[in-house]
Structures
1.
Amino acid sequence: MTIVFYVIAAITVAGALAAMLLKNTVHCALALTVAFAGLAIQFLELDAQFAGFAQILVYIGAVAILVVFAILLTRGSETPKEGVFSKTWLAGLAIAAMVFAVLSWAVLNSTSSLPGDSPKPTVSVLEIGNALMGRYVLPLEIVAVLLTSALIGAVIVAKHEKGSAK
Amino acid sequence: MGHVTALQGYLLLAALLFAIGLAGALTRRNAILVLIGIELMLNAANLNLIAFWRYGPHPEALTGMMFAIFSIAVAAAEAAVGLGLVIHIYRFTQTTDLDQMNRMKG
């Protein structure tokens, strides 16, 4: 494990924690962007350049902006009087802690059949494009249909209808 | 516990991010922040996929990478529809507080 991994991991976890703990919702969205950027750098560290840049484009470029728009459209940045956590926060926290305990126990106690240090894979965008157009062309088409229907669905759902709204 | 390999390090980071996202999704009152928690969990899963692709026996087959790319695309669609639903519900109830969204009728 390199020092770069630990630094980026600390930044990512700090961003994720801030996104889930801060009171102001806009600050949460900004902290979420930090966590997404940290994950993108981890992807680049893992020699997955394409996935790293896709992460930057999709998450930092689109999803984070979408979240900020939703917060501003719903006046969600106002902190509610009853606090930001629900009444059953203790149960939720306990479930999350147990999930983490089980996952980390499984990771640390399993003997991996994989070699510890594998050679750095060299994958060009050309190979990814060939794979997307060859072996993975059916999933690609299905994702295209899904994205189109999700786009139309989101517009129809969020569209302002006069008369029906109070 | 001994030495932590590179793959285990990434898997532990992904498990921690997943737990943080799950805790947020289960405890926050604001519906948008619950969606943010779900996004964090999806991202943690993507990190797992990429880590297994990098340290797996056949990285040239691109399986894990393709899984991660498709997962990113599906997550983007999910975020758009989810936030659209939150905005629509907000128009009727004037709130994004999940504890107050306790009826199905608009």
2.
Amino acid sequence: MLAAKTKDWFGMTKELLKINIGLQHPSTHGVLRLITELDGETVKSVEPVIGYLHRGMEKLAESRTYLQYLPMVDRVDYLSGFFCQEAFCSAVEKLSDIEVPERAKYIRCLLMELNRITSHLLWLGTYLMDLGASSPIFYAFREREMILRIFENLTGQRMMYNFHVFGGVKRDLSAEILDEIEKFLEIFPEKIKEYESILTDNPIFLSRTKGLGILTKNVALNYSITGANLRASGLNTDFRKQKPYLVYDKLDFEVSTETAGDCYARYLVRIAEMKQSQRIAAQCVDYLKNNSGEFKNSSVNPLAIKPQGEASSFVEAPRGLMICTVTADGSEKPYRVKWRTGSFYSVQILPELLKDRNFADIMAIFGSLDVILSEVDR
Amino acid sequence: MEFVIQPYVEFMIEHKIPYVLAFSMWYVLEFLLISVFLLIAVLIFILAERKLLALFTVRKGPNRVGLGGCLQTVADAIKLLFKEDLVPEKADRFLFGLAPIVVFAPVMFVWTLLPFSMSILPVKSDVGVLFFMAVMLIPVMGILIAGFASRNKYSLLASFRAVVQLISYEIPMMFASLAVVVLSGSMSFIDIVTEQYKYGLLSWYVFPSFLGFLVFFIASLASMNRTPFDLHEAESELISGHTVEYSGMKFAMFYMAEYAAAFIICAFASIMFLGGYMSPLPISLADLFAKSELLYGIVLTCEQIFWLVLKTCLLLFVVIWIRATLPRMRTDKFAEFSWKYLLPISVVNLLIVCIIKLGGLYVF
């Protein structure tokens, strides 16, 4: 921390302005608190304070059976519930050697990619809101709403899906829902073009994001940054390619990377990821329409799961690598569940990125990292 | 305004009302009329903005109060009227109360300079442009007072930003309006409009001084705190800046002042560059239909008000459109923008205008 008081040339005591951004601030995306010291409008130090959304997700698992814990898992990251479900379910499946049918894998894959689109759309809208543009959020929400409708029709919930079960999913995708998804996937590329037409070459947007908050490859690796933020720094890491889970090895898609590492690069990566997600989802829909099969492993009795040992599952979530480690001792309750989520590491890097930046850049940089506080605190 | 003044004077003489009283009553009446007009214009403008923004962003906008939401702003105003007036414990009570007045009064004040038509002009000033420029700077002082008085760090930062913004946009704006003064040879708004009527549409100053118009428009966006230059309002950074601690009627005064200023600046922009209240059409309704002198005066006045309001509304539409499109600029980037681009462009524009004027190239 910087010394709070310094003397200027005339011997006058100069005090830094200590300002508390947060909890109730519109741009902190939840309940992050940033204790900031300003010299004029220049940020001298930032101290993120987290923990205001701590719900004890990990501890709660220890007093619940595997099935009882499953509905809570969505809340680890409330914007990408399917990813949390997948992380936990696949860890338990690994532990107790549950086979997941091919169709169920495709369904999970499809839902996750749609969920990634909703998550990135929400990021796009709120990020532009942070930069002061009021309308992109409505365009982004218009498309997000379409996906949420589909999810609601399918699972009965808009955000907390609770749709995975051990060894598959709760119910099969009907032909109508597949048609709906296909219809959405058809129009979505045009909508992305729409966002890009008002943003990608917008001079004010460029001046607010380009060359700002540069995250070099080394710094990003040292801070364990993962996901889109790391890919924007020029590292081609995507667990869907590196350690293919579900059916990602059978799907055709590209990992989008940028080398600049600034806010603009992170924007480009997320836009490109949405396009790839659309591509993956279209392939999944294609498979699901032409193939039939079991949507869950009906031999599994979810009440009688009593695994032993330890297993981790890796999921490439929208906000970075998500790892769920389940340690089991043979009883019906897990001994320990550990979550590793991307946002936690993105918050860590804030003091480094924000030092000596303009006050307005706090929101531009913090927003570009795509942090969700429920994921940070768990 | 002879067609109204004449009957008024006759009425006063008939009822033996002293001259001084009649004279001052006339001014009070005129001013009341115009301020009520301003307030109604502001209410309509706020509603129009919300409706338009809703259209731009695929929403419905206000649609509950009144027919199609037309009474929404009235309801909002009444709500604000009845809200508790909160003053922060450690705030400077006097300055805290003074700030909204300092912001609101000059805007009403400047409004009196606006020539609605040839005859409706409460204050005829020979230095209109200068006066307008000078008075429109006072609200920034109010914002500064508000920032210091409310003892809030966000407000304080906002008031710093307001001043930074002011010294950035003010000079280009002055140079841009100087071009108009050079072209018309007068600082009086009436003269400026009359000069622009000499050759119809083509003598509008937007043509010889197009760059000046652009600079004036961009700078006026900054002076009305509109996106992309709403630096000191910045709800995502400074949480609405200087108005953070204000509630109730005091907040409403800030809010009204902002929208009234937007309306007024657009009105003055249309007077200085777009021919003001003069019709762009070669014929007017008054010439065609009005038989008597009184009717002619009334029709002509209405027509001129119509054209002025139409031109103002077009400019306001662009302002709202820009708000729906662009993100906010950063303070230092804005200062850079105005000193590096706006100022040189406005000076070049002044040079071009001088050459046109001096060389007699301005043949229109």
